[in-house]
């Protein structure tokens, strides 16, 4: 830094200005770095603008001019990326998002900026796919090689996008990259496949892929949040203990280590300890999304709804492009019977992601409580349809099928309701007395008292371990 300043290189060279700003960011001198970089992005260089088109279209002129432009445009994009880092450190996420987008629009190979957009969930799934289509892939590579390189980079970027939208495009990209480019064993590609499996609730398959990555490279910390989430979903307490203990011994400086410890305590029901380690992870990296979500989950697990809402609200502010904090806020308000607020948060989440079956289920619950039963049936049906389309684990959506049955029952569509309840009762570990009670009510209201008696006897078999909440003949709780 002293050398650059002493020789007045910062003002004379784009590359030296980039290097100086990079040095200051590494020293956490963000204001000084921004003073060197400037707050304004060179938006005139972004793909699609007339100035950029003229520059990219140049075929004549001296090689010096072309080389100088080629060098400058990469450093201009890199400096947009650095501006984004500075704004993110200052919690100005909208400005950071704009800087990262400008960086990739100027130079489509500025992967660091694209990575920040994706891993920090700064865009909604719809925005991500629209942004991908706006990028300048066609000018990649030398003459005659542009098509192949453009296809390769676009497919790589496709694998990083939200897994809730366009799973077909994602699968096509991964298959082509694996078969044509010999990347089937690439860790980043396997992580992307694991993320898709996780959204489909196929936790065992996701866990297998994550374990393969960790076996090959235990320093690949990007895979650990997904790996730990799978262990939690599968209730693998012993494995979580071994993993978290090993990480605490070997990687104490990594935030994901204390995330692992927090998840272990959350899985074993030690909520206070889990909260302490989630908090530690979030303090080590204030923009570590899984730690914030875990921290909020600890309050939700204890029924501390106000604190949970506060923590989820912080996560929603930090990660504006993901629908999950808004979804969890809606679920908390549903448990507090604040249907209007739940409706507001869930619709905000729906604006960000329209293809999450869990979100559609919760929206269906809101309509159920508002007595808009036809709308609730549509949403429950859509949730089950999407879960089937993405090849999700059917056991994960038993509650949604039961919810659909309750909605049909209240619409006096007893045969459809019984069909739903029959599918629920055939599912393993689905001995829910509320379902058998609902079946009995369906038969009773349909004028079949004998069948109703048989179903209500089934309720008696489970009554000792699980009591139904019944209020004026209405089953409550199954749609929470």
Fold and architecture overview:
- This protein has 480 residues and is mainly alpha-helical.
- It has helices spanning 2-6, 14-26, 30-37, 50-56, 63-89, 93-106, 111-119, 125-133, 146-158, 167-180, 187-199, 203-216, 224-233, 237-250, 255-267, 271-284, 289-301, 305-318, 324-335, 339-352, 357-369, 373-389, 398-410, 414-426, 433-445, 449-462, and strands spanning 469-471, 474-476.
- Among the domains are: 1-120, Alpha Horseshoe (Serine Threonine Protein Phosphatase 5, Tetratricopeptide repeat); 124-183, no CATH class; 356-480, Alpha Horseshoe (Serine Threonine Protein Phosphatase 5, Tetratricopeptide repeat).
- It has 26 helices and two strands.
- The longest helix is centred in the N-terminal third of the chain and has 27 residues, at 63-89.
- Residues 59-70 and 464-480 have low confidence and may be disordered.
Would you summarize the structure shown here?
This protein has 480 residues and is an all-alpha fold.
CATH superfamily placement of the domain at 356-480: Tetratricopeptide repeat domain
**Strand count, sense and closure of the main sheet?**
2 strands, antiparallel
Helix count equals 26
Order of helices and strands: HHHHHHHHHHHHHHHHHHHHHHHHHHEE
The span between the termini is 59 Å
Q: How many beta-strand elements? A: 2
Strand content of the residues, in percent? under 5%
Percent helix range = 55-70%
Radius of gyration: 27 Å
Mean pLDDT: 85
Q: What structural class do the secondary elements suggest?
A: mainly alpha
* CATH architecture descriptor of the domain at 356-480: Alpha Horseshoe
Strand order of the largest sheet: 1-2
